[in-house]
Amino acid sequence: MTSAASDRAQDPTTGHEWWRTAVIYQVYIRSFADADGDGVGDLAGIRSRLPYLRDLGVDAVWVTPFYPSPMADGGYDVADYRDIEPVFGTLADADALITEAHDLGIRVIVDIVPNHSSDRHVWFQAALAAGPGSAERARYVFRPGRGPDGAEPPTDWHSTFGGPAWTRVPDGEWYLHLFAPEQPDFDWENPEVVEEFEDILRFWLDRGVDGFRIDVANALKKDQSFPDVGTEDESVLVPHEGPTHPFWDRDEVHEVYRGWRKVIDTYAGDRAFVAEAWVDDPGRLALYTRPDELHTAFNFNFVRAAWDADELRRTIDVSMAAATEVGAPTTWVLSNHDVTRHATRYARLDRTGGGVADGERVRPDTPLDPELGLRRARAAVLLLLGLPGSAYVYQGEELGLPEVVDLPEEVLADPIWERSGHRVRGRDGCRVPLPWEPAGPSLGFGSAEPWLPQPADWADLSVQAQQGVDGSTLELYRSALRLRRELLGRGGLEWLDSPAGSLVFRRRTPAGEVLCAVNLGTEAIDLPTYDRVLLSSVPLEGDHPHQLPGDGAVWLT
Ligand code: GLC
Questions:
Q1: Is the Cβ–Cβ distance between 313 and 306 less than 8 Å?
Q2: Given the residues 136, 185, 215, 403, the one annotated as active site
Q3: How do the pLDDT tens digits run along the chain, 557 residues long?
Q4: Is the CA virtual torsion 155, 254, 201, 110 positive or negative?
Q5: Measured from the CB, is residue 277 less than 6 Å from ligand 1?
Q6: Rounded CA gap, 362 and 34, in Å?
Q7: How many angstroms separate the CA atoms of 359 and 363, rounded?
Q8: How far is residue 227 from each of residues 155, 223, 323, measured CA to CA in Å?
Q9: Which secondary-structure segment (H or E) carries 188?
Q10: CB atoms within 10 A of CB 388
């Protein structure tokens, strides 16, 4: 292939839609900013920090579920899809957030949770009251049990959070919940469910949102013969793949998104979907982003990959090739509210550079080198933001926040903790409220004690402590986002030869040429020829350095 042809093959940025190149900041609402002083983040808190997000330089925010919810799963148990949880504010606050964000040039993506509702949702309450065989029950997956008196669950399916995926109700029927028992699964065979969700999409599109993040997008359709899985696998958030698995990534799920695409396409303003689908095979993941389906899907391969040049290069190539095949951009993600923060994944001494998004999270006794983790995390973001496509930043990673691995057991709120019989601590360690200031009862998060305690040494990582400080992680992110916007938006990627254990690629964009070099090893490597250093994750020696130290990354022109 000529270089121009290979550029094209690796260029997912052609087309002018914003979501092809956007950097999207994930706000985990409970932990971002607390304006009303109840210890929990809220919409007014997000509004008050919009100027921060503008100055950071992101294109959009994705706000995790803000709907009325008993919080059995941090809001991913939705009791009403058309309203706001009072702890988070009101619909008027949501409207104001959308308007104010737009005024600052920031788009707003909301989280939609179609696989399951809360057990407090009126539909589920009606299903319980109406009894077996009713139209109300047909909106969820109710089945008779097996064995004598139907006392055994209908299938051997396990909940992603541990324990059986079925719970029995007093009249003897069982209902399905791939997550917590407080999260009953909808029956997506039922046209009423299909219509209801298309209507919910319109409700939020009419209010001006720019798109949706679709929760467990790969789980909606179940094998209607309800076969056993035949495995004891109870691991947490580990994907299984279709088309033959009884519920993960089945081919039929794509019908749903063809319908959703028709809905969103009736709206002006370039609105977009992003699918959360833990699908290993990039080819199968790409199916979600065919032209008549969703615009983008999270690519979790970076989350799973070790800090290893070969593995990351393979991941990048395979992801880009699969996405390009269907004309979609790739997305790049290092962290989110479900996985161990990457500064801590990369700090693990028990697994070289490793950290995978499995149930086996970092424990209080996992051997860690936090300094090394942060150094690698800083390099990783220059790799991530140097790549073509769309990128996600999870709140607090711009401060270099680590996972809080030693939260006291009595504060753990993730259902995984209880459901695993206190074997798996769960995801609270990546959900600790943000430090905004070096002092105060919650380091500027709000005026009260935060819902999860912050480590005292987060004072030094607070926004105020890092703002304007040369070389701080916050300033590294700000510079990287500005340069990306100016120079790295469009254009493909071309790999250059580089020493073992490193990655070097060139981006040729309409604004010029940028080289990105990442050294994943410990020894310094020679840099390619260049004119100017644009940005470096580590201090470099001299005016025109020839070497890049270990676990460092640099953008050159
Ligand atoms: C997704 C969410 C996660 C939630 C689960 C069930 O994976 O990201 O936080 O627990 O779905 O809704």
A1: no
A2: 215
A3: 334 434 444 455 556 899 999 999 999 999 999 999 999 999 999 999 999 999 999 999 999 999 999 999 999 999 999 999 999 999 999 999 999 999 999 999 999 999 999 999 999 999 999 999 999 999 999 999 999 999 999 999 999 998 999 999 999 999 999 999 999 999 999 999 999 999 999 999 999 999 999 999 999 999 999 999 886 654 434 455 567 889 999 999 999 999 999 999 999 999 999 999 999 899 999 999 999 999 999 999 889 889 999 999 999 999 999 999 999 999 999 999 999 999 999 999 877 666 555 556 788 888 999 999 999 999 999 999 999 999 999 999 999 999 999 999 999 999 999 998 998 889 999 999 999 999 998 999 999 999 999 999 999 999 999 999 999 999 999 999 999 999 987 788 999 999 999 999 999 888 889 999 999 999 999 999 999 999 999 999 998 999 999 999 999 99
A4: positive
A5: no
A6: 28
A7: 11
A8: 7, 7, 32
A9: none
A10: 28
Q: Dihedrals φ, ψ of 256, to 5°?
A: -60, -45
DSSP 8-state secondary structure symbol assigned to residue 496: E
* Cα(59)–Cα(362) distance, integer angstroms: 32
Identity of the residue numbered 263: V
Tokens of 80: 């009403």
Q: Which residue has the tokens 């990128």?
A: 391
Taking residue 372's Cβ as centre, other Cβ atoms within 10 Å add up to 19
Q: Would you say the CB of residue 186 lies under 6 angstroms from ligand 1?
A: no
Tokens 């983790």 sit on residue: 373
Is 410 one of the annotated active-site residues of the chain?
Answer: no
Ligand 1 in reach of 428 Cβ (< 6 A): no
Burial class of residue 541 (count of CB atoms within 10 Å of its CB; 0-12, 13-18, 19+): exposed
Q: What is the pTM of this model?
A: 0.96
CB distance 61 to 108 below 8 Å = yes
215 is catalytic: yes
- Ligand 1 atom 4 nearest Cα: 76
**Residue linked to tokens 């590294």:** 476
**Residues 209 and 148: beta-carbon distance below 8 Å:** no
230: region left, alpha or beta (phi > 0 left; psi from -120 to 50 alpha): left
> What is the whole-number distance in angstroms between the Cα of residue 238 and the centre of ligand 1?
12
β 296-297/272-275 pair status: parallel
For the chain, state the CA radius of gyration: 23
Closest CA to 198 of 273, 287, 252: 273
Pocket test for ligand 1, best of 63, 71, 73 (most atoms within 8 A of CB): 73
Strand pairing report for 23-27 and 60-63: parallel
